[in-house]
Amino acid sequence: MEPVAPRKFGEKGLQSDKRDSDAGSLARLEARVRRDQEYLCRPSENWVLPHHHGGQRVLDAVIIGGGMCGQLAWFALTNGGMRNIRILDRSREGLEGPWMTYARMDTLRSPKQLTGPAYGYGALTFRAWYTAQFGDAAWEALDKIPRPMWMDYLKWYREVLAIPIENEVEAKRIVPEGDYLRLELVGPRATEAALITRKCIMATGREGTGHPHIPDFVGDLPRSHWAHTSEDIDFDSLEGKRVVVIGAGASAVENAAEAAEHGAREVRHLIRRREMPTINKMMGIGSFGFTAGFADLPDEWRWRFMQYSFATQTPAPRGSTLRASRHDNVHFHFGKSIASMQLCADEVLIDTVDGARLATDYVILATGFTTDPLARTELAGYADQIELWGDRYTPPASESNEALANFPYLNRDFTFRERTPGSAPWLKHIYCFNYGASASLGKVSGDIPGISEGASWLAREMAASLYREDVAAHFQGMIDYSKPELTGDEWTPSEIEPAAVAPFTEVGD
Ligand SMILES: Cc1cc2nc3c(=O)[nH]c(=O)nc-3n(C[C@H](O)[C@H](O)[C@H](O)COP(=O)(O)OP(=O)(O)OC[C@H]3O[C@@H](n4cnc5c(N)ncnc54)[C@H](O)[C@@H]3O)c2cc1C
Question: pTM for the complete prediction?
Fold first, then answer.
């Protein structure tokens, strides 16, 4: 996908473009990061035992995805002494994740002070990076993080930690190869056809265990007349046109605003719900307790939290909604379930379930993503062996939810489980470190707030698994270890002379 032209910094309050020269510098901050690493004795020395296959050293892990989660996973693993790893991303450098492609909001939803991928390092926070360049006063004045600036921060994060992302390399398929996994690679910069690895982390993003959701009502409407928000949309071509946006979430209002700002004649949101969702329930209950406790809750409780969050829906951010409704020609129509869409003389005719009919020139589907492991080409051939929530848990009728039933039911270490024991044992080496993990493990593998907790958890679980698998060799290492700590000249043995022994006296009761 081609990058969406970012608005220029300084425009529309996207960034304070006046850097504060007294505020210190990135160079000093980078030195601080390096010093913190040194003080904390990180990254740890490699402790993972080498494995070989076909005469070649096997990688300990490959991380698919060089977005925020992939980068942080790399940092957490290397800090933990798992150093024989690689990280791939199919995007061009600087275009990882949604930020510079299809994310169209001015600012992030997340509050600016969240520590995101900082992994416990103050010097790695967005705040440290920002104040090093613009100063404390600018930080105080900053409301939300401008979207392109967040990408700049992630680029800096990659640079300061020297994360060796291999861009323009796509992991096409993950297949078993004996006790290992073979990752088949494609892409302009792929230098090998395949990699052999012990573990694979799918840090593949918001649609990382699924795909954009295209509702059935789209039918065979020609591609020239619709797009999903995750696609490259030529907004210039919408000038003077009528546009319908399906949905009312964050992407809906941002795409509606974008269309209006590019001169669309009218933009109409068609919204199935009768009322606008206004309360962000998941954000409201975010806490260390939720992060730490969710994965251990019984199925019925995990389902209940997730189902309620789905049912109440995350509202669009206030700023994005205002950005859309600032335009007089942006309209919100509630209670409009779509029955059908058809092309008629270059117009799209939309019929709603309640009998309304609307003509438009272009439809933007802000219908989000579907979690559906079966749709992932990386898992092609055995994705149907992955255990899903629907296989494990039947909720009461009042809490049924088809979308949630499609989420993978993960082990506590982020790995997939087999639907039928013995049918695909290699699944326990594939780690689902993306949105797909949320039904099983909570919000620790996607959004900014819980991501450092998630990465630390992932690294710990992976270390445990790599160690456990080689336990006999590690034990042998203990037996073989022969480097003395004492060399024998630190003490002199002496005999106990009888006279030196004090007579035994009883100490009172
Ligand atoms: C429009 C939009 C706005 C958002 N705003 C916010 C926000 O304000 N706050 C927040 O906390 N979250 C937000 N999110 C959620 C957001 O996706 C995450 O916070 C963040 O991008 C997660 O990072 P990630 O690394 O998991 O995924 P991504 O950043 O999406 O990175 C995944 C990477 O995997 C790569 N990849 C996928 N498959 C392969 C493959 N087979 N081979 C090689 N590479 C592959 C992709 O190229 C991509 O670069 C937003 C999401 C969207 C879509």
Answer: 0.93
Give 51: exposed, middle or buried? Use CB within 10 Å, 0-12, 13-18, 19+: buried
Encoded tokens for 209:
């265990």
Which two structure tokens, joined as six digits, stand for 76?
């957490």
Q: C-alpha distances in angstroms, 4 versus 24, 101, 229, 319, 364?
A: 32, 5, 12, 20, 16
- Residue whose CB lies within 8 A of the most ligand 1 atoms, among 90, 170, 192, 231, for a mutation test: 90
Instruction: Give the Cα separation of 442 and 451 in Å (integer).
Output: 11
To which residue do tokens 């000093």 refer?
A: 28
Q: What pLDDT does residue 208 have?
A: 86
- Distance (Å, whole) CA 189 – CA 209: 24
Q: Which of 422, 437, 410 is nearest to 382 (CA)?
A: 422
Tens of pLDDT, residue by residue over 439-478, are 999 999 999 999 999 999 999 999 999 999 999 999 999 9
Residue in this structure with the two tokens 């946006």, named with its chain if needed: 245
What backbone phi and psi angles, to 5 degrees, belong to 32?
-65, -40
Say what the pLDDT of residue 504 is.
Answer: 64
Contact of 472 with 320, CB cutoff 8 Å: no
Residue 389 sits at φ, ψ, to 5 deg, of: -60, -35
For position 16, what pLDDT does the model report? 43
Q: Which of 477, 426, 463, 451 is nearest to 179 (CA)?
A: 426
Place of tokens 């967040």: 150
* SS3 (DSSP) at 286: coil
Query: Minimal CA–CA distance to 176: which of 53, 332, 302?
Result: 53
pLDDT, position 444: 96
CA of 97 to the centre of ligand 1 (A): 4
Q: What single DSSP character describes residue 426?
A: G
Tens of pLDDT, residue by residue over 6-61, are 333 333 334 444 454 445 589 999 999 999 999 999 999 999 999 999 999 999 99
Q: Which residues line ligand 1 (CB under 6 A)?
A: 64-70, 88-91, 96-98, 103, 108-110, 170-171, 203-206, 251, 378, 434, 446-448
The residue assigned the tokens 């719900």 is 273
Query: What is the CA angle 287-293-295, rounded to 5?
Result: 120
- DSSP collapsed to 3 states, 414-467: CECCECCCCCCHHHHHEEECCHHHHHHHCCCCCCCCCHHHHHHHHHHHHHHHHH
In which residue are the tokens 């009322």 written?
275
Q: Which residues does the chain have with pLDDT short of 70?
A: 1-24, 500-509
